[in-house]
Design goal:
- The chain starts with 9 loop residues before the first helix and ends with a helix.
- Strand 3, helix 7 and strand 4 form a beta-alpha-beta unit.
- The chain folds into three domains: about 5-205, P-loop containing nucleotide triphosphate hydrolases (Rossmann fold, 3-Layer(aba) Sandwich); about 205-245; about 245-370, Zinc Finger, Delta Prime, domain 3.
- The chain is an alpha/beta fold and about 375 residues long.
- The chain has 17 helices and five strands.
Length: about 375
């Protein structure tokens, strides 16, 4: 992947290129940014520039044997690590799927990736065997290039297993580069953070998304602007809006709110039983959407501004809810969803968890009615 294929981030790309040209590349970097900002794409472009053996100036040449192999993600000195499923697996078992996923959408999120490899009700992880696999691969001499590069996508999934990599990150073999690509700094061990130079990557602006989505999809300018507004700086979300006109999470969330407001067990229990089978990664993705909706709802409740990052039906629902739900209730609901997310990550029984959440949501929604 070339830098000019990465959407936006003009200044950052120039800084990274200058870093390589002046030979000031830290051996361990953490590319930190929100979902859909393109940090994985930037990491791969950075790796291609480092490994390029052709005539490179403001861009990798894109023509040498090294560039050709990086673009196919088969360069022997470019290694990848990422979340996967299975306690005894390593990333090696999923490289074919990984290459296909990157080719289709380097802006994908963790849920999309894990579902593409059949996660269903399993959670992703980067396990002990993967750490040992990384140590083994990076202990070997480089095959074709001066450098060896490891790109680790979402080191948040390492957990405490990251301790196995501390010595390697602190004292790597000569000409070995680590590029960690992360979204949530708080979920990464401090001992790893302290060994990395953090490169902060901002969310994309609407203009960059407009340009990028028009290049990739058959949209006119007005359509692209509408998608960019909804995407809130997340190019992956922009792609989802274009490819899926209806937001499944939006429909599911609004259905859940309606069922919980009515509070009838004959509807609540079947909904919970169905949702419990959706898989933990899908459940976490749904809860993230629900929190996004509540944030936008609070904006319209506080300001009356209808220029929100919601689709038409979602906006209509949010406006209707302003007559029903007050801000103190939204705070309670947000905490409830945060707690649900916490317990999903820790393998709580989904039927018990979401039935309890549904009953609690009914109580919160009815509180105002009782007080009035």
């Amino acid at each position: 992947m070339l830098f000019n294929e990465v959407i936006g981030h003009v200044n950052l790309k120039a800084e990274l290129i200058e870093m390589i040209k002046t030979e000031r590349v830290p051996h361990a970097q953490l590319f930190l940014g929100p979902a859909g900002c393109g940090k994985l794409a930037i990491a791969i472009a950075f790796a291609q520039y480092v490994l390029c053996i052709g005539d490179k100036k403001e861009e990798a040449c894109g023509e040498c044997s090294s560039c050709s192999k990086v673009q196919k993600l088969i360069h022997p000195d470019l290694h990848f690590s990422f979340p996967f499923i299975g306690s005894k697996n390593t990333s090696n078992n999923f490289m074919e799927e990984w290459r296909l996923a990157i080719k289709e959408n380097p802006y994908m999120n963790a849920n999309q990736w894990l579902q593409s490899i059949g996660a269903e009700n399993k959670q992703g992880n980067i396990n002990k065997d993967e750490c040992l696999n990384i140590i083994r691969k990076l202990s070997l001499k480089s095959f074709e290039s001066e450098y060896k590069v490891l790109v680790m996508w979402l080191p948040e999934y390492l957990g405490k297993e990251g301790n196995r990599l501390l010595k390697l990150i602190e004292e790597p073999p000569e000409n070995t580069l680590f590029i960690l690509v992360a979204e949530n700094q708080e979920l990464i061990l401090n001992t790893i953070l302290s060994r990395c130079q953090i490169v902060k990557i901002n969310q994309l602006n609407d203009e960059d998304i407009v340009e990028g989505i028009m290049k990739r999809e058959n949209l006119n300018l007005e359509q692209a602007k509408s998608v960019a507004h909804l995407a809130s700086g997340n190019f992956n979300e922009a792609l989802q809006f274009v490819q899926n006109k209806e937001n499944d999470n939006a429909k599911l969330f609004l259905e859940w709110m309606r069922i919980c407001y009515k509070g009838q067990g004959t509807e609540m229990v079947p909904w919970v039983e169905t949702f419990a089978g959706a898989g933990r990664e899908n459940q976490k993705h749904f809860l993230r959407y629900a929190l996004h909706f509540l944030r936008e709802y609070m904006l319209v409740k506080l300001t009356g501004n209808e220029n929100l990052r919601l689709q038409d039906q979602e906006l209509k629902t949010a406006l209707n809810l302003t007559k029903v739900i007050e801000l103190d209730q939204i705070q309670e609901i947000s905490k409830l969803f945060d707690d649900c997310y916490y317990h999903v990550e820790r393998n709580a029984n989904p039927k018990v968890l979401f039935l309890d959440a549904s009953i609690e949501l009914n109580r919160i929604l009815k509180t105002k009615k009782q007080v009035a």
